[in-house]
Amino acid sequence: MKKHIFFKIIAAILIIAAITMGIAGCGDDSSEPGSAGNNNSADNNNNSSDSANTKTINVVWYPNESSNTHEEARAEVGRLIEQATGRQVEHKLTTDYTIAIESIASGSADIAMAMGAVGYIEAKNRNPQIDVMFANADKNGSLDEAKYFAWICVNSADADQYKSGNGYSIDNIKGKKMSFVSNSSTSGFRVPTSSIIAHFTSDNLDEDKLIEGGAGMFFNEVYFGGSHQGSTINLITGNADAAAFCDIELEPYIRLKEGAENTVGAVYEIKPGADAPFDVHEGKDFVVIASTPVFNGPNVCNPQNLSADEIKAITDLFTSAEVADNEKIFYDADVEGAMGLYKKSSSYGYAAASDSWYDPYRQ
């Protein structure tokens, strides 16, 4: 009898153990992808010694580089990031600066290429974890003269209205129709408005007074093109009398017609064979009436989905001679049909940069 009871007890213990193992097994299933137990926290996303992170790396681009003109350059950037990390890359194209800035700040994008200083600072204010990796260098491969130019331009046919002595001035833009890029654009808004505010001191201007047009406002009408290309189109189609945009974003579409590059009085025209949206505006020209140097923009990472080793590997590759000589990114403007992100005559490769380099734009 005692022996029979003993075997019953053993059987009960085995049944309980089996049930317990089954429950544990169900718990493991809940952590499979797509289950309720799965979470996407930064700790889970980052690489660990146990298993490599194989999630896709998302790269976001401003509207300026989201055009078909830059498709090959974007693909090459993606290939290089895959080379550095061994992970697949997907590109996130945008039609609005705010989308790109929010994407890198929130972590829905892991890398933001070719940001402006102001957009980066806005994103950094929202998420202090994001950081600068590198910027396109000057023609010597350093950051010493790593600058591009913020322009205010007018159509050549109207240029006489802005003559001042032997040159040009922004004296007469007051009361005109003005086009900017985006209020998050460094060279297409922040720098030009700073120049206007400094020039028209007696008007007691600030950015808010320059955003809206109409009776009693500084400008009669104000437009935002959404990109440097869009602001230029506003000018050459007559939608705006004057427009802010930068040289580096217009390089694929324009050529110097008169004067010295990036100087007041320089005349540029839409070159033959320019891609859309300039393909129907070949030969139209405009004059630079203000030109201000701007620090080259940062290429930024959000470490939520990238390990420190991956960020270093990406930075090391992009700042290498291999990439500096990559004609899909740094192109020779003298070669017909050559296209990339930056002209070799202005930028030789990328150089490592830091957050503090952009402190002047925090003022």
Concise structural overview:
This protein is α/β, with parallel strands linked by helices and 363 residues long. 31% of the residues lie in helices and 21% in strands.
What are the defining features of this structure?
2 domains, seven-stranded mixed beta sheet, alpha/beta, D-Maltodextrin-Binding Protein, domain 2, 31% helix, single chain, six-stranded mixed beta sheet, 363 residues, 17 strands
Helix and strand composition category: alpha/beta
Largest sheet composition: 7 strands, mixed
- The side-by-side strand order for the widest beta sheet comes to 9-8-10-5-13-12-11
Count of alpha/pi helices: 11
What is the succession of H and E elements?
A: HHEHEHEHEEEEEHHEHEHEEEEHHEEE
Helix coverage percent of residues?
Answer: 25-40%
Tell me the CATH architecture of the largest domain: 3-Layer(aba) Sandwich
User: What is the class of the largest domain in the CATH system?
Assistant: Alpha Beta
Beta-strand fraction estimate: 15-25%
Oligomer: single chain
Approximate shape: globular
Q: What name goes with the CATH superfamily of the largest domain?
A: Periplasmic binding protein-like II
What's the CATH topology label of the largest domain? D-Maltodextrin-Binding Protein, domain 2
- Total of domains: 2
Distance between the termini: 91 Å
Question: Low-confidence segments, ≥5 residues, pLDDT <50?
Answer: 1-50
> What is the gyration radius calculated from CA atoms?
27 Å
How would you state the average pLDDT, rounded? Answer: 88
Number of strands: 17
